[in-house]
Amino acid sequence: MTIHKSVLLGEAIENLNLKEGSVVVDATLGSGGHAKEIIKSIGEEGFFIGLDVDCSSIDNFKFQISNFKTKGRIYLINDNFSNLDSILKSLEIGKVDAILADLGYSSDQLENPDYGMSFLIDAPLDMRLDKKKGLTAKIIVNKYSQEELLEIIRKFGEERYALRITRKIINTRKEKEIETTGELAEIIKSAVAIRHRNQKIHPATKTFQALRIAVNQELENLETFIDQAIDNLAEKGRLAIISFHSLEDRIIKNKFKENARGCICPPNFPQCVCNQVARLEIVTRKPLIADSEEVRINPRSRSAKLRVVEKK
């Protein structure tokens, strides 16, 4: 059973331009909300490949589809979407018709203490989606140098109080190892200016974001995934990505623009010498966002942005 509500569900499915028999990759299976609609849309002749680095997402979706009356060929793979090339080769699948990635964490993950991701639940500091990986948030918080920790919080969290938070963490861990999300949240809260401690957005939000990004290598994996996704799309195939913060959206926007650009020679050149050809057409000139009704029902959708491109 999942408590997660899929964000921009209708918009994502509509913009993937799915047909009966399509070959589709859901690169971030999560709770399976998007995946179930994809499988319905492509029918029994379709190929569905669902990926997730979190093995529990794979197991949960296997249970969900066990009662499906109609389903096509379904492959569920516990792997990171940055390995898309090798995954498709191992399945002997060539070009695909559509790829979807929802970069948000599911409510199941955020509210499960086993993941240790959220400041709303006191749990051991972990934040790993892939439990086979060794690096945890606890290691970063307690073992990284002040310079390394400051870089993570400042770069991945875009936190204005990064230096104050880092110093508070360093001073606290000299006395006692920081072990839980609740401890860390209180340390962060005590480090920020008093006027920012009781605002609508919790003062630990950006630091927790930064730690999750660092632990799961999210931005590096995203860049690799986008390149491989574009390579593996068939002509007229579509790539749709839902992001939840500016760092992700910036990478997606720039990658899409870069691959949608043709000749980059200076305007005064008599003829093109760069030989660069546009590989993509941008479908969504501005990102699609959740409407007021979706935000009311699912507040986490308020920061979601959907960008879509089509392969030329």
Topology:
Elements: H1 9-15, E1 23-26, H2 33-42, E2 47-52, H3 55-65, E3 73-78, H4 84-90, E4 96-102, H5 107-110, H6 137-143, H7 146-157, H8 162-175, H9 181-191, H10 205-216, H11 218-232, E5 233-243, H12 246-260, E6 280-282, H13 292-297, E7 305-311
Parallel strand pairs: 1-2, 1-4, 2-3, 4-5
Antiparallel strand pairs: 5-7, 6-7
Helix pairs in contact: 7-8, 7-10, 8-9, 11-12
Question: How would you sum up this structure in a few lines?
Answer:
With 312 residues, the chain is α/β, with parallel strands linked by helices.
Specify the structural class: alpha/beta
Return Rg in Å. 21 Å
Strand content: 5-15%
Instruction: Summarize the helix and strand pattern as letters.
Output: HEHEHEHEHHHHHHHEHEHE
Kindly report the name of the CATH homologous superfamily of the largest domain. Answer: Vaccinia Virus protein VP39
Quick check: average pLDDT? 93
Counted up, domains total: 2
User: Strand arrangement, largest sheet?
Assistant: 3-2-1-4-5-7-6
Q: What is the count of helical runs? A: 13
Main pleated sheet: 7 strands, mixed
Number of strands: 7
CATH architecture of the largest domain: 3-Layer(aba) Sandwich
End-to-end distance: 40 Å
Can you characterise this structure?
The chain is an alpha/beta fold. The chain has two domains: 9-108 and 218-311, Rossmann fold, CATH 3.40.50.150; 115-216, Orthogonal Bundle (DNA polymerase, domain 1). It has helices at residues 9-15, 33-42, 55-65, 84-90, 107-110, 137-143, 146-157, 162-175, 181-191, 205-216, 218-232, 246-260, 292-297, and strands spanning 23-26, 47-52, 73-78, 96-102, 233-243, 280-282, 305-311. The chain has a seven-stranded mixed sheet with strand order 3-2-1-4-5-7-6, sandwiched between helices. α3 links the parallel β2 (47-52) and β3 (73-78). α7 (146-157) crosses α8 (162-175), α7 packs across α10 (205-216) and α11 (218-232) packs parallel to α12.
